[in-house]
Design a protein that fits this description.
single chain, 176 residues, 2 domains, 5-stranded antiparallel β-sheet
């Protein structure tokens, strides 16, 4: 894609096989890339979230984790990733002289090992999201902190972030 030299799109590269943006780690880990999520990630998500070494450390995905759970979650985060990438591409075309745009999230989050033939294998997921304060046990205080954090505009330096992702209550049945 022409325009990857534009500040809005740096330091992303475009995978010639998938057409997706990605970030490559520096040597000696240059075989590790971070890409948008894909629906083809369903089997690896199901395997990971049913592994006791993983599920004991996560709080929001349902257990047992079924393929339909992975499809629901991936659909949500794929839409988010596509929207942010499209926002950056649009800014690079419509505002070519503008400073780099601050966006609400990162369009890439799935860590993959890229093989010599160009194929890749999912290794994990590293989403950066606004903190939902799961560690706060008081429901009202948790809600207050979450609402304040969500109300902060994109780019506010006071936004509190967390690594991971939270399943919407519609997917988990949790209405708290």
């Amino acid at each position: 894609m022409a325009g990857l030299l534009h500040p809005q799109l740096r330091p992303f590269e475009i995978n010639p096989q998938t057409g997706e943006p990605y970030l490559r780690l520096a040597p000696p880990l240059s075989n590790i890339i971070i890409t948008p999520p894909r629906l083809s990630d369903v089997p690896s998500k199901v395997e990971a979230f049913n592994d006791p070494r993983v599920y004991r450390w996560v709080s929001s995905p349902p257990w047992p984790y079924l393929p339909e759970h992975a499809v629901q979650w991936l659909t949500v985060i794929i839409e988010e990733a596509n929207a942010v990438w499209n926002e950056l591409v649009k800014a690079s075309v419509e505002e070519p002289d503008a400073a780099p745009k601050i966006v609400s999230t990162c369009p890439v989050r799935v860590i993959r090992e890229q093989k010599e033939d160009g194929s890749d294998v999912p290794l994990g997921d590293c989403g950066f999201i606004r903190c939902n304060f799961d560690e706060i046990l008081d429901v009202e205080e948790k809600r207050k902190q979450s609402e304040e954090n969500e109300a902060r505009p994109v780019g506010d330096p006071n936004i509190i972030w967390q690594i991971g992702g939270t399943y919407p209550s519609v997917m988990t049945g949790d209405q708290s």
